[in-house]
Amino acid sequence: MLDLLPCCLVLLAATPALCQSEAAGQIGALDVTAVVEPYMSVRLLTVPMPDTPIDDGSPKQIPDIPAEAGTSMFESMLEFSALEKPGVVTADKYVVIVVSSNCSDWNVTCTSQGLTSSDDFIPSERIFVRSDYTTASEDRGAGRGYEALGSPRLVAAGSVAQDQVNNAFFKLNVTWDDTPGSYDGVLTFTVLPTP
Asked: What number of other Cβ atoms are within 10 A of residue 9's Cβ?
């Protein structure tokens, strides 16, 4: 003869289970709730410009990420060296934007407040960005596809993705009126996810 011992299953934060001494069969049902939080990871990496110009068909791959870049943003610096006569100057690096997200829709924009020296100011309307999301057919002062950062510019967009790669290239228009010296400023990247 088989002795059946009473058993009781207790689950916290769930519907109370039934205590039953039968060995087989359905003994009850539990309500289950799962919560999936929106997830968004954006990494900004700067990569030195190659010796040959990058066209619109530039590679979309994640460069080697330094060990210290484990956080959501790897800080680095872009430099514009206007060492000759004034004109349009290309940054020494481009920015790789790597996005992983479970959101149905998201975008990344870039803005600037301009560049400041101890004696002068270069407005954001003379800092330009080019990405897959700028208008490739137009030249607005820095070459085809470059748009001024006088207002936020879209540099990346998508939906659910793991390590989607977008590249952003920057130029600066230096004029004869700009005072010689070192100028500093910030490029701000803003992420707008929609769960």
From this structure: 13
Pairing of strands 187-194, 161-174: unpaired
| Residue 12 CB neighbour total at 10 angstroms | 4
pLDDT of 19 higher than 70: no
DSSP annotation of 3: P
Q: Which two tokens stand for residue 139?
A: 């030249």
**Residue 14 three-state SS:** coil
Instruction: Give first-to-last CA distance, the chain, whole Å.
Output: 58
Confidence band of 69 (pLDDT split at 50, 70, 90): very low
Domain ranges of the chain: 40-194
Could you tell me which residues come within 8 angstroms of residue 89 by beta carbon, excluding any fewer than 6 positions away? Answer: 80, 81, 82, 171, 172, 173, 174
Pick the CATH number of 40-194 from 1.20.120, 2.60.40, 2.40.10, 3.30.1560: 2.60.40
Helix, strand, or coil here: 67?
Answer: helix
Average pLDDT over every residue of 21-37: 78
* Range 61-88 average pLDDT: 66
Task: Label residue 112 by pLDDT band (50, 70, 90).
Answer: very high
Q: What is the pTM of this model?
A: 0.74
Question: Are the beta carbons of 128 and 187 closer than 8 angstroms?
Answer: no
